[in-house]
Description:
Order of helices and strands: HHHHHHHHHHH
Distance between the termini: 8 Å
Amino acid sequence: MPLVNPIDITDEKVKELVDFFNETLGFCPNSVLTMQRRPAIAKAFVELNMAVMENHGELTPEFKRLIAFVSSNTAGCRYCQAHTIRAAERYGASQERLENVWDFENQKCFSDKEKSALRFAHEASMIPVNISELTERELHDHWSDDDIVEIIGVIALFGYLNRWNDVMATSLEEDANTSGQDLLKGISWVPGKHA
């Protein structure tokens, strides 16, 4: 049972902004519908999400969602795990990448460059943060400073979402639940308190 139930969107500006999620997920997430209780929070969150997920450098929409998955998997938020894997699929991730992102270090479907970013996402999403010097060095070997800012933006955005949804026990939408069940068999994913 969620801590606070979502409500329908009443704010016109938020209604306009949530079209972003219809592209990304195919629906407006319950997390945003909960934030809608304070429209200023919902608006600020959606605008931040749009800014973080905009691509300017080497990162693709698909890879940003895989970074978000690794961050959410590290944090343990089942709600965000399902959302990020669904979004990665919608942005063209191959079945192999979707089914193996949780074990990216041992997978040939991820380049050394991608592994450096995913390793960074994993270490940056730990509490406390525990980024090794080697990870930082490899990140700088493969990515520009501008790209690193985008990577950190994704990690930070999902730090907020992981905390929001795990504390709220946000109810998982049917489509996200199906994506979690179908694509996260390798980690024995279950919705847990988000059911």
